[in-house]
């Protein structure tokens, strides 16, 4: 296990390019076209049938979802569907509230997939999501607070088991940075190594090609800087 400084972990500015297929090209924006999708693009968007697992609480800029091969724009009040691939463009933000009251905040140029979301109050439930790229914050709800319940997040370099907590993360092309914000536990596994985070303001950095899970400790001021990546 290695320890590193947090100071240079957040790129300034944070710029990423994600290949998400021809169907999602409508989300690509430039400073001249940033904002909601153009009317000509909206005309071809359809909402496919699927289980409603949450709703958009806030949206800014280009926020969309791909379900069953179709791209649709997401805005305030839009349904979020089981198996949706959520996408954000430049200068964009999204806040999603799931049925179990889990809150998800996405920043610019992010991609998150809802792999599983099965929740019934008082019954063993489970949720699994994949952060393919980008920046997020998650405040877990009720899905992992029932006996046997689970909430799991996959990234390209790690798997995270979540036990009742609030945390922030940034997945770049080959590097994951993750910080625990509140009480609770994160079990972070990568290449047969697991680190448990159970102290607020502690975190990890996992980088493809670099051996070991690196641990970090941040200050409240550094956390405030990180929070700017997902807040309005």
SSE layout:
Layout: E1 2-3, H1 39-42, E2 52-60, E3 63-67, E4 70-73, E5 79-81, E6 85-88, E7 93-98, E8 103-106, E9 111-118, E10 126-139, E11 150-154, E12 159-163, E13 166-171, E14 175-180, E15 185-190, E16 193-197, E17 202-207, E18 214-217, H2 220-227
Parallel strand pairs: 1-18, 10-11
Antiparallel strand pairs: 2-5, 2-7, 3-4, 3-6, 6-9, 7-8, 8-10, 9-10, 10-13, 11-12, 12-15, 13-14, 14-17, 15-16, 17-18
Biggest sheet layout: 18 strands, mixed
Number of H/I helices: 2
Share of helix, binned? under 10%
This entry's quaternary arrangement is single chain
Stretches where pLDDT falls below 50 for ≥5 residues? 2-6, 12-49
- Total beta-strand segments: 18
Sum up the overall morphology in one term.
globular
Overall mean pLDDT: 83
Which structural class should the secondary elements be placed in?
mainly beta
Strand and helix order: EHEEEEEEEEEEEEEEEEEH
Radius of gyration: 17 Å
Question: Into which percentage range does the β-strand content fall?
Answer: 35-45%
Distance between the termini: 35 Å
Structural write-up:
With about 230 residues, the protein is mostly beta strands. Helices cover about 5% and strands about 45% of the residues.
Summarize it.
The chain has two helices and 18 strands. The chain has helices spanning 39-42, 220-227; strands at 2-3, 52-60, 63-67, 70-73, 79-81, 85-88, 93-98, 103-106, 111-118, 126-139, 150-154, 159-163, 166-171, 175-180, 185-190, 193-197, 202-207, 214-217.
């Amino acid at each position: 296990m290695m320890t590193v400084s947090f100071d240079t972990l957040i790129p300034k500015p944070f710029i990423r390019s994600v290949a998400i297929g021809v169907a999602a090209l409508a989300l690509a924006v430039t400073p001249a076209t940033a904002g909601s999708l153009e009317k000509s693009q909206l005309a071809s968007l359809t909402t496919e049938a699927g289980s409603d697992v949450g709703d958009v609480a806030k949206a800014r800029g280009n926020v969309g979802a791909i379900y069953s091969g179709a791209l649709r724009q997401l805005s305030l009040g839009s349904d979020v569907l089981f198996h949706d691939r959520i996408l954000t463009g430049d200068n964009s933000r999204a806040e999603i509230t799931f049925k179990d009251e889990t809150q998800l905040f996405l920043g610019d140029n992010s991609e998150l997939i809802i792999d599983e979301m099965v929740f019934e109050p008082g019954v063993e439930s489970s949720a699994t999501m994949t952060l393919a790229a980008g920046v997020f914050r998650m405040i877990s709800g009720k899905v992992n607070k029932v006996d046997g319940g689970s909430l799991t997040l996959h990234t390209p370099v790690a798997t995270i088991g979540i036990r009742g907590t609030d945390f922030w993360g940034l997945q770049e092309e080959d590097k994951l940075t993750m910080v625990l914000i509140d009480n609770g536990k994160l079990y972070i596994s990568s290449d047969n190594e697991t680190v448990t985070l159970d102290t607020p303001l502690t975190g990890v950095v996992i980088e493809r090609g670099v051996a070991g899970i690196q641990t970090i400790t941040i200050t409240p001021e550094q956390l405030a800087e990180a929070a700017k990546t997902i807040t309005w």
